[in-house]
Amino acid sequence: MVRAKKLSRKSNTSETVSVKQPGNKKKGIKNVGTYNSNTPSKTISGSGKTKFKPFTKPKISQGKVEVKKKSKQSKQIFKEIKYYQNNIGFLVTHASMVRLVRELTNQDVNLPYKFTRTAFEVIQEATENHIVKILEYANLVARHAKRVTLYASDIQLVLRIKSGL
C-alpha cells in the first residue's frame, strides 16, 4: 500500500489516504510451514483502530523433535541408578516387609509368631539380596538376547535354571 497526499481546496493542510497497488504475487504457491516474522499481524477494524492479533505459529512448524526430553530422561535414570548404588538402606520399606512376613507366617498357624526387630532386618536383607541376584541374572539373560529391556520371561528363565528345571 502506498500513501498519497491529497490536498483539499479549503485548507492548506494535507491528509494522507491509502491507495492500494496491484500485487505481483504468484497465486497458488504458499510458503507452508515457515514464518519469518515474529511480529503480530495487524487488522484494521471498522472504527479505524488497528488491532493486533497474537502471533501463533502454523501447526506444521510446531512439530519439534523431542531429543532433549530423552536426554533429560536418561540423565534422570542414571541419577537414580547412582543413588540406589550408593544408598546403603533397604529398597523395600520396613512396614511393608513386616506386614508380608507376618502374613506369610500366620497363614496356617492359630498362634501368631513373634519376631524381634533384628530378625525382621535379617529377613529383609536376605530377601532383597535374593531378589537383586535374580534380577542381575535376568539382566544377563536379556543382554545375551541382545536386548536392553528386561522381560518377565527373562526372570522366569532364571528361576527355572536356579530351581534345576
TrEMBL record:
It is found in: Chromosome. The gene is CENPA. Pfam families: Histone. Belongs to the histone H3 family. Coiled coil: none annotated. Residues 1-51 are annotated as: Disordered. It comes from the Eukaryota. Residues 10-21, 33-48 have a biased composition (Polar residues). This is CENPA. Keywords: Chromosome, DNA-binding, Nucleosome core. InterPro entries: H2A/H2B/H3, Histone-fold, Histone_H3/CENP-A. PANTHER family: HISTONE H3 (PTHR11426). Its main location: nucleus. Residues 76-161 form the Core Histone H2A/H2B/H3 domain. SMART domains: H3. One of its GO terms (cellular component) is nucleosome. GO terms for molecular function: DNA binding; protein heterodimerization activity; structural constituent of chromatin.
